[in-house]
Design brief:
27 helices; flat; about 425 residues; single chain; mainly alpha
Length: about 425
Amino acid sequence: MANGKRAAQLVGRLRAKSSSSRDDVVAQLVELGSEAVPALLKALGSKDYKVRIAAAEALGRIRDPEAIEALIASLGDSSKNVQEAAAEALTRVGDAAVPLLLDALIGKDQAARKWAAEALGNLGDESVAQQLIMRLNDANVEVQRAAVTALGGLKSKKALEPLIDVLASDNVELARAAAEALGKIKGPIAIQPLIEALSSPSVDVRSAAASSLARVGKRAVPALLHTIKHEDYVVRRWVVEILGNIGAEEARDALIEALDDPNERVVHYAAIALGKIGKPSVIPHLVALLDHEKEDVRCAAVQGLASIGTYQVVQHLSQMLEDPDWVTRLTAARGLGQVGTRTCVEPLVRALQDEEWSVRRHAAASLGLVGVKKGAAEPLIEALNDPKPSVVRAAAVSLGQLGATEAVPRLKELLKHSDDKV
């Protein structure tokens, strides 16, 4: 009884303006456990939506099944934030909430159907997959999308074909959600439909399909290789990127051939993909792109070489520190830090004098990553005088990484720098 009275007093403090104060009260209510439930259930009817949110959160953390019915009712609250808090609370309560969530899933309230679908997906009980599949035809698009996402979360194989149908939807949000869900389930029958989605007029759908194909992994490679010469350059561009993200060594020859694609975006992503595969045998093919007329392609070739990461690329990355395009120079400086051999120090020291401050910044940062103090400490101390604070910060961090104690006096002076981040 004493704890019940204490709970009622604490609930009264949930009206505090400070969120930290409310968090403290919620923590105290949770400590009281089931004895706080009656007061919290009453608080779910408060006029103050912040109180209702806090009450739902506390009930979820207490995990008392007595709260399920009231939390289900809160899925239709006038405040979206309360709806979300109630859904999260029901997920915390666990399997005991499933029967009433299934009732809410077919109820009249659209918001409740949506949040019920989301909670069921988060609970991870695959036995509810069929009920969620039925909601794919819900009259409300938000409910449909929540059901799609939930089925992806459950990784239910029985949802593959229904989700493939949704992938073909004219509704971009539904198609994107279906693409994401199919990637989580990773069923082989979804590979071709996901490849076809790479032709979608929506970049969001294309991106989601590409990510999902990369998730599917090696099983998607044969179909991707079959599509690498697709008539649409947009599809080719996505295919080469996916192959790189998968790290498919069997795609090496096809990606090398893609370096001669008539579209520079395809060439760009093929160069990066070859770098991700990481075989030194592709170095000559990437080097051939370093004098390409398009800076975007040169930059991608530099990025690819850096990803390979062997001492064999240092000479080529050093050469690109002289490129007329500053983004390419920056990428080369960053790449030398990735490679990290002793031979990277001298070209990076030269790059500390670049006219573009962002190149100088990455050169300074890369010297710290290389980790060779000899030949780097003195130029980095000099870089502490750079007019750009971000360059100074990078130099200071690298000097610390190198353990350059000789820089301490100068670093102490920087404690008075006008930029507090320095």
